[in-house]
Amino acid sequence: MSILGAMFTAVSGVNAQSRAIGHISDNIANSQTTGYKKVDTRFETLITVSNQNLHAPGGVIASPYYANHIQGNITQTQSNTNLAITGDGFFIVSRPTSQTANATTFENLRYYTRAGDFEVNRDGYLVNNGNYYLNGWAVDPETGVADTSVVSPIHIEQVIDEPTPTSQIDFVGNLPSNSEVNPTPPLSPSTVQVFDALGNPHTVQLAWTKRADNLWKLDIVAADSTLDPVNGTISGVPDQTAVTAPVQANVPPVAQVDTVTVPSAGVPPLRTLTVTIGSSTVSVTAPSTGWTATQAASNLVAAINGNASMSAEVTASNVVGNTFQIVADNAGTPFSLSLSGNGSGQLDLINVPAALPTGADTASFQIGATTVTVTGPLASATAVRDALVAAINANVTLAAQVTAVADPGNLTQFYVQADAAGGTFTATLGGTSAPTSVSSDPPIAFAVSTANVPAVAQTDSLTLGGTVGSGEIGDTYTLTIGTQSLSYVTDGTETSLSDLANRFAQQINDNPGLGVTATAAGNVISLTAINAGVGFTSAATATNGTVPGFIDVQFGESATTAGKVVAISNQFNPSGNATVPTLQTSGQDIDINFVVDYGLGAQNITLNLGQFQTTNGVTQFAGDDIDVSRLTQDGVPQGLLKDVSIRDNGDVELQYDNGRSRIYFRVPIAQFNDPTALKREVAQGFTETFDSGSVQVNNAGANGAGTIRGSALEGSNVDIAEEFSKMIVTQRAYAANTRVITTADEMLAEVINIKR
Fold it and tell me: What pTM did the predictor assign?
């Protein structure tokens, strides 16, 4: 009966729309669920009989359609371990069966998901909110090759990054071409930190010293290593000689001798004689009775020898008549001498008259047109003398010419001395009292003093002997002049004894404080006192010296090679282990290989200085100090895990606090022929089915697989607006089907009523 068929069809429609509304409600509820894949509804017609003559109502069946292949929106997150897939594919995940403090076991069944909200749990696994554990391939951190034969849960156990001992040091820098040879203080070494097999830090220093133009020595200093890369000492041939000390002067210094002559007539009363030697001066004054020539000489000798400053330089002696000698205390020490005094002008002796008893009596003194007069009463001749002396010295005109001095030995006499050296005058004495007398002495003449025996400059000669050359490094020649010493150390660049003598002479001439100059002729160095008559002592010695081992680095001297390394040698490295390249042509690497031992056995290190005859590496151009542009090494200490991130290619990068990153895992992408046929599991998980086809595992981005985006999540692929539209349509369909059922029921009731 068709009414019953209609009712059956309507009931099937109600059931189908009920399923559809369930699917819609599930989608809406999970619209914000990470990695959720919506469920659509597919309706299929049930047909019992349907032909040209008859169509029996069949109804409808509703079945789910899983939109597993449709991608949701991708958003960025702050988590380095959050993942999203752009394109086709799924993450491979596992579910645990048991968890203990020591281990986690997993189901044998593989699961697949697009929910990439993974975080590292306490056990080091990457787990999402659905408790799915991310799977991946193990990767060899050294080669970067993944083992694609096994997919297993990613377990981060590498919380410690093992240290890597240093195996190479790279030095790029410039050595100053204008550096002094063997500068004092030495140039600051370049220091780099290296690591041993346990990650312990050590320092290696590169000490550079210029030893000649375009030639440098390099010492690799590994202070706390039991093996020294550059070791030993370089000794010269023990045949070098110098003159035996003490050196005998070729021309010895001669002590200066001066003869001093005083006036043969002696020195009149009150005359002063002054002797100046160097910067020291002494004076003597004749008494009122005057001095004979011998007396004057003897008094001058006593004054000179009694002066501490003078007696430290000279000795006066040998008084003969009007002469005596002054001799330098030290042979070769010169002095200057001058003799002067107030006896260089005219001296008049004045005998004064007797007392001036009345005011009418006068005594006058006249020089030229200028007269001074004193009047009585004056009680004595002494009073007259003192009054005249005072009047003369008070007169401006007379005082400019002469000086009057009372004779302390005679109360009736006074002297009048010309003020100017060589000065003369005519004096008269007059007045109402009878004058006595005026007697004149002419100026005293002093002979110019010249040395009887002048000082002579000392000259010494030093003779160098032995061999010089590249094998003679560290031989020390020492010259002592007085209390000062000067040394020259051979550096192997000398080619002859003449070359050595010239370099030594240059050092002497650069040091004027020695008091000598030097000239070289062959292997002989001649020393001459800078000041004639200044003596010096000298001595010379030579010892077979040694210098520490070093690496010899030669820079070019042509226009094309200037400032570039052209050769390197370890011939001056007697017992070290550093080796240099055998092939040293342009473009070849400058690799110095050496061995250190920090208590863990031999550790081989290569020092790379760039390339021969290029500017790619160490150079020698103008500068004031070593300019280091790069000084690096390849060792790292132990590191602790700091962070985990996942690259777009799926590589799981472990980042350590030693600055190094390691790749230990790679996240692959799983693909299926029909992802809509995957079986849904809890928490956005899927499992493989017969209809989905077997899983294909590929690298991200390979063979059609999607790519991975780190720090991102894929949201639900549900479109809320679309779902609300479906809900309205489904609701109307559901209501229509219920109306069919109601109508069919009414029709059946009418049929039943007809039978009644």
Answer: 0.57
